[in-house]
Amino acid sequence: MAAFTQFPMPNERVITSGTTTIAVMPEINLVSHFQVGDWQVLYRASETGNVKRWGIPLMIPNFGRLKDGLFEEKGTTLPMHGFGRNLPWSVAEHTETSIRLQLTSSEATRASYPYDFVFTSEIVAGEGSLTYTLTMENKSDETMPIAPGFHPYFAQDQGEKSHVVVNGLEGFDASTIHWDTNPPDNHYPFAQQASFEFPQQGTLRIAEVPHAGHYLLKEMQVWSEPITAPDHEFICFEPIVTHENGLNRPQDRLNIAPHTQQQITLRLQAQPR
Length: 273
Prior knowledge:
Blueprint: E1 13-17, E2 20-25, E3 30-36, E4 39-40, E5 56-59, E6 70-71, E7 76-77, E8 90-94, E9 98-104, H1 107-110, E10 117-126, E11 129-138, E12 144-146, E13 149-150, E14 153-155, E15 165-167, E16 185-189, E17 193-198, E18 202-209, E19 219-223, E20 234-240, E21 254-256, E22 260-272
Antiparallel strand pairs: 1-2, 2-3, 3-4, 3-5, 5-13, 6-7, 8-9, 9-10, 10-11, 11-22, 12-21, 14-20, 15-17, 16-19, 17-18, 18-22, 19-20
């Protein structure tokens, strides 16, 4: 492990509850650490320091690529996975067990995404759990389309990836994948929850908590890197509203009415072996 990536780093804000420790890097809204007991659930790019391969970044306002990078509705361009992970978020509140971050629209965001908004991320530590609530407030006078996603990097030794047992993700079977040379980059239907047994580590449950009886995370993207990549000992199981180019599909994205808000709550529950 490179010394400069040792936990906790100076720019990590830490929250705890019992045996659970979570950390966040506010400047890029990155959940950088989630540990329950001895199990470090999230991958940490300890050798390379590459924050693009680390923790749980938030992909907002769009998950994945847009076709030709174009946001068709406004004729602007947006980068892959949006701008949320590239802009500084402010810390609105930090307690022993929770932290709340905010990003407000600005000249930097309006150039590519011409809406007035406030995005709020609240991360709460529980015993064995991480609860992440994303609030998307549309302060504009027009409907605001949005298609966010969560991009967790779960630590997993390369040689054990084919032994990960997944329940609740129809069509996915880790044992059939050539992880070294042809890792997955596919989306699957997400039926509100799924469980993952990580060899030698424990069982993780990923679930969406409904708001007013509604679920918004409809898919889960599964992705990893080949063994030749500098960072590869992870598997990403990514709960998302919809897959790439979704911001250009009105029927798949979220469409937030003027001066209203929508919330998504994701909960990770980890039980070490």
